Amino acid sequence: MARKALAGLVPLVALALVATGCGSTSNVGGGPSGGSRSAAGADFGAQICGSPQHQPRFPVPFGELPGGARALSGAGSTFVAPMMSDWTKTYSQSTGVQVAYQSIGSGGGVAQIQARTVDFGDSDTAMTPAEQAKAQGPVLQIPLLLGAVVPAYHLSGVKSGLKFTGDVLGRIYAGKIKAWNDPALTELNPGKKLPKEPIAVVHRSDGSGTTNIWTDFLSEQSPTWVHALGGPSRSAGKTVAWPVGIGGKGNEGVSGQVSQTEGALGFLELHYVLAQNSTYGQVRNSAGRFVQPCVATVTKAANGAAFPAILHHAVIKGTDPDAYPISGTSYALLYRNQTDPAKAAALVNFFSWVLSKGQDLNANLNYSPLSKDLQRLAVDQLKQVTVNGRPAVT
Amino acid sequence: MTPLPGSPTPRRRVRGRWHGTDTVFQYAVRAAAALVIVVLVATAVFLVQQAWPALRQYGILSYLLSDRWAPSEATATGRHPNPYGIAQFAYGTAVTSLIAMVLAVPVAVAVSLYLTEIAPRWLRRWLSGLVDLLAAIPSVVYGFWGIFALIPAVRPAGVWVSRTLGTAPVIGPLFAGPFFGVSYLVAGLVLAIMILPIITAICREVFATVPTEDKESALALGATRWEMVRMAVLPRSRSGIAGAAVLGLGRAVGETIAVTMVIGNNALSITTSLLGPGATMASVIANEFTESTEPFHLQSLMVVGAWLLVIALAVNTVGKLIVRRTREDIA
């Protein structure tokens, strides 16, 4: 730790000397200030991420509804699946209610709720108006957790903590930055020995909510990326026409390629990165800070986020200056008007449990609990459930 | 033979006794045979039916004429250009299968010759069993092995090739770097190992049908073992080897998971370099069907599936025809 800090200091001092020596041209003058800012970011990340945070639990303002069904079925996002399996297991142990969740992908979740073949769907992106029009009635979209997408890399001799900006990531994924020692990267990472190796860009080969969050962030931050993909309508989504790179199927596919390929850079869900012990980077947020992704910094992502504005973007845009910027949520999808009172009660009971007690389990799997704002918004959604027109929650 | 009056023939009595179960048996096997045909036809009909909206939207030919697969560029109404070009997948399937054949056929022939002509009897059974066991390894395990063992092993060679041959004139583009491991070449290597058992098994059978007299005559005339193989065994087996190779090709064409894991899944265009990432018809379906949410996306995957079925059926039919002709020749 101490050696790392020293190694970080030496080039700062060197740069400062150069700056004083040569007079302050704007270019050289930018180096130290950028460096000190990023150093502050690193400290900040370590601080926040190091100490376990206890999120105050938002109390769900209504009690358990009587007469709930003993079984529920759901289908959708693979992103939420590990958490969902933990939730459903714990929930059935305490209540005896069985919730069967099929991890078939967000697209499948939307299709199944449209067809009413499940009691609830789950999608990493909110349903578009066109998708909602195909459903058999208004659909409630309830955020369940927060997760992050993280740049992970494999460079021998380089540890976690490389600094990236959205624009640099966009230029890498557009194929414009081809090597690790590109000035754009070395400038962000003074003191890190970046090799002259080509960057092996790794992306998803299947459609994915993870891709959606990642490309939404790149589109917002990098004009180069948007241009390379042919415009904003094509540069973000569950599938995009990747200009360069290797495709891996699922998080495990990307993770496998990154871990096996020297010089690889890929994007992975945070819980995957931490579980696999991969090396991963920090990303600069809108406040200009380089933030290490962890449960605490991801939780902050939704602070100050506005609803329903967040429904239009995969990346959650909050206002917290300490938030990790590539964070997103996953939405449970259920019909506002339920026809079966037993199912309605079971749905409300299950999700009010997920939104309160269930949130305490999130950090075990390196997902983040909903921030208080988002939790309140989620509960507001849940309160709208009706049974044949009459409110389920009174 | 005329039966004696008053005494029923034993034959008729047997037939009478078994008549009921015989009919049941006959219908049962007929139904089983019909089921195979029904399944095949139903699959084909299903694929075309599912693919139909996309085919009507873009036309059949536009699929094969484009090598750009970009579902995100599809719209509900746009017809031109077709965002679902599949030429690169056909190319990937062809190239990986070809690499596999080039590597596997000579090895399979050599192994079979060793097994039938040279190996001591006790080793023959063991070794044949081991080769057959290669076929029992699940495809996904081959994929894992490809990623975690084969790729690290071939990487130095691949990097060297990309730095030497990759800059050569004319053939340079075929070996251009950077080489990251996942590539047509590695997919071909994995496929080669996967199709080795089937080719070896058929070759073994073909070589075993060469009459002992032919071989003994060659040896009696003073031929060495190699000359005997060259004069007596190989000429008779030529079309049998070809048939075995084509059946191996049939397996390679349709192989999905192992290839998906090591080919790199670049769906956007044809990668000229054999050391670069590509995609095959089977791999794109495996990758994309779970989240095929764009307009005509799933239907276009069905188009890929239909073409793959056509190619696989054609390859297998040709293979079976060749093998059958060889058997008839020998008989």
TrEMBL record, chain A:
Family: Belongs to the PstS family.
Keyword Signal belongs to the record: yes
Listed InterPro entries: ABC_phos-bd_PstS (IPR005673), PBP_domain (IPR024370), Phosphate-bind_PstS (IPR050962)
Keyword Transport attributed: yes
Highest taxon in the source lineage: Bacteria
Gene3D superfamilies found in the cross-reference section: Periplasmic binding protein-like II
Protein name: Phosphate-binding protein
Domain PBP: 69-356
CDD domains, per database record: PBP2_PstS
Signal peptide: 1-19
Pfam family, one: PBP_like_2
Keywords: Phosphate transport, Signal, Transport
Organism: Streptantibioticus rubrisoli
From TrEMBL, chain B:
Keywords: Cell membrane, Membrane, Phosphate transport, Transmembrane, Transmembrane helix, Transport
TM ranges: 27-48, 89-115, 127-154, 174-199, 301-323
Membrane topology of this protein: Multi-pass membrane protein
A Pfam family it matches: BPD_transp_1
Gene3D superfamilies: MetI-like (1.10.3720.10)
UniProt main location, coarse: membrane
Cited InterPro entries: MetI-like, MetI-like_sf, Phosphate_PstC, Phosphate_Transport_Permease
Domain ABC transmembrane type-1 intervals: 90-319
Intracellular or extracellular location(s): Cell membrane
Record function comment: Part of the binding-protein-dependent transport system for phosphate; probably responsible for the translocation of the substrate across the membrane.
Entry's family note: Belongs to the binding-protein-dependent transport system permease family. CysTW subfamily.
Protein name: Phosphate transport system permease protein
Species this protein is from: Streptantibioticus rubrisoli
